[in-house]
Automatic annotation (TrEMBL):
This is MarR family transcriptional regulator. SUPFAM superfamilies: Winged helix' DNA-binding domain (SSF46785). Residues 3-140 form the HTH marR-type domain. It holds the Pfam family MarR_2. CDD domains: HTH_ARSR. It comes from the Bacteria.
């Protein structure tokens, strides 16, 4: 690949990512969750299965522990998450989604479906799934974090 190819690939991936994040956020807002930001979605994606500590959230986002704690404070005040005892570490607090947080996460999943629909129409489901598979080969472990 020459420099021009690399730069256009980079630009295309970043533009697609930015567009996808914005489209999902717009969809979440349209579903009635106007008090969340795109960064919150990255937190929700980590918390959805089993919860996480603030330290784990910070590592996931690539933020400081203090910045992650401020985000958790904000989400807790809005009712999307709660802190509770950690089942395996008495010194740690586990941050988990509340019912409101789970509903918002489902709205984000629906918004993602809506955001990807034009991509399916443009290049077809088979090619899009092949692209997904290749991207997962390139970055199998993530993390999924804001790119800004």
């Amino acid at each position: 690949m020459n420099n021009s190819d690399v730069m256009s690939l980079t630009a295309g991936l970043l533009a697609a990512t930015g567009s996808l994040v914005q489209d999902i956020h717009t969809g979440v807002v349209a579903h009635g969750y106007s008090d969340v930001r795109p960064t919150h979605g990255f937190v929700f994606s980590l918390l959805a299965p089993d919860g996480a500590t603030v330290t784990e959230i910070a590592a996931h986002l690539g933020f400081t522990r203090q910045a992650a704690s401020q985000i958790v404070d904000e989400l807790e005040k809005k009712g999307y998450v709660r802190r509770g005892p950690h089942p395996d570490d008495a010194r740690a607090r586990l941050v988990e989604l509340t019912d409101l947080g789970r509903r918002c996460t489902r709205a984000a999943e629906q918004a993602a479906m809506e955001a990807v629909r034009p991509w399916v129409e443009l290049i077809g489901e088979e090619r899009l799934l092949a692209l997904r598979d290749e991207l997962l080969r390139l970055a199998p472990a993530g993390p999924i974090r804001p790119s800004w």
